[in-house]
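Quick note —
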Amino acid sequence: MSEHFDAIVVGLGPGGETVAKRLIAAGKRVAVVEKELIGGECPYWACMPSKALLRPVEARAEASQAAGVDKPRVDWAKVSEWRDFIVRHHDDSAQVESYRASGATVIKGEGRMVGPGRVSVDGDELSGDDVIFGTGSRQGRPDVEGLDDVTVWTNREATSLKEIPERVLIIGGSAVGVEMGTFLRRMGAQVTIVQRGPRLLGREDSELGELVGDNLRADGVDLRLSCQARAARRNGSDSVVELDDGSSVSVDVVLLASGRNLTTDLGFEAAGVKLGHRREVPVDQHCRVGPGLWAVGDITGVALFTHTALYQGRVVADNILGKPHAADYTGIPRVVFGEPEIAAVGLTTEAARQQGIDVATSQIDLRDAISRPWTYETDPHGTLRLIADRQRRTLIGAWAMSPLSGEWIHAAALAIRAQLPIDALLDGIAQFPTYSEAYYEAAATLDL
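Predicted structure written out below.
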């Protein structure tokens, strides 16, 4: 097979799909190339199944906190059945047919660059005026002696699980570690999280990481901070993990939540592309790698989130279709769907100070500052921190740990992205009673 297309999209994750659908809608002749399932990691093994699993335990906790409501029971059989529906039973045949019906050529296989504008898929060569790569990332594997000898899960096995294991050790205190640790613990598993740093969510403000750790401990999770897995071995049916503090933990499953590797070993050098130090594909402000070559999503190394990939997909499609669009990554929200939700946006306090910004911060306890927590739950809790540039009087960062914070963090995201003055927050009118009122209360305490 040797065929020419207006565009070839390699990797049909969120970013690749966004580009492909927009180009197809514009009348372009498009080939889409996907090694696994159309839709990528997010709908089948990551965002969608994990949130579908987390929602029942979150709803149970919320109901337990509502006045006069008995604690409901979570039916695992029904939860897993709904999860299977959400992930389409790992079947992308409907997506394949939809693309074909729209006029696209669908090719299942691994696409590799073999030269400028040329892609090889299992020996067949395609050419295109524009080639877009969105091949994502895969779970990294820590260097732990004997890890291959024990039962190991990545996010894929974790979100596809059929039964709840009795004992789980999670390597890594990232978003995946916190989310799956919350879910498994609330489903009755004994959970240990091993984190090499001094706190969870190490890229966020230290206070937030400490709050998350306290919350998980209160839930019964065993946290081992400033600690690493050194070796693993099989002992009968147990997976035994030895830690560098001299202790060991016997579990049924070891879950890896220790970072991801970018899927960029796909012949980019053949197109004259030199990968970055993290093996990322270098892109300009338009997500262009070079003439007729583009990249979206995780492989760019920019904020590895589904919503970043979706945004980059829109940027690339616009540029190919003659609508100049420069990417602006200011104010990308970061949400961990724990219980309660953990949301952040913009700079952390430490990062802002390292950049030489004259920082002003405020941090409020939501139950003391606003009324909504008291109407939402009988034992109210929640925290909001704002981080501002004192000289410019603008918001540059924010984080919250609170019910629904993944929803209302977007007010801060918009303020940061639009560089709204703090005075705009102080003069705003929020619906009463809502969590959004907290922005006024926190802004009013900033020392500007």
